[in-house]
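Structure tokens please, single chain.
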Amino acid sequence: MIQSISKTYSFAEYSQYQDSTNNKYELVNGELKLLTPASGIHALILTFLFQEFYREIIRINAPWQVMPGNVGIRTAINKSRIPDLTIITAEQTELLKNMTTAILDSAPILVVEIVSPGNRDDDYRFKRSEYAVREIPEYWIVDFEAQKISVLSLVNGFYEVEEFRNEDIIISGTFSELKLTVDQILSV
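Here you go.
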């Protein structure tokens, strides 16, 4: 019987990792975790939210950037996640300009994860605890299958959750004037 040996990567090795593909990987407990390509609805929701956040950032004249699934966040000594959307500060934007690998070592303003079949535990359990430890103030979980959006707000080191469905207007501490309903987001 042949056993395959999996390699454990340090954060430094992960941050320099290159293969001959366009694959994206997260680092989870020292192991590379391949991110599967998004489904059609996942991609449409991501694009819709990107555009809405971008417009709102411009409208309120905030010094932020919305990044679509291309900026990692170091969540522990041997973990790094790549949220579907990340809202970053002007300072983080400046740091990215000089990085060889786009992985933040500081908490962004807001992250969004769009749940895909097969990664529910990642988004609802594991990333939730990692993002709380990283002290990310606001975390959205967009769940097309369950037809809901959860907004998690960090309070004293733990996330408080508010769930929104159907015609509920999503309440965001970061984007307090944004008027989006769950139906608008999930029916793109």
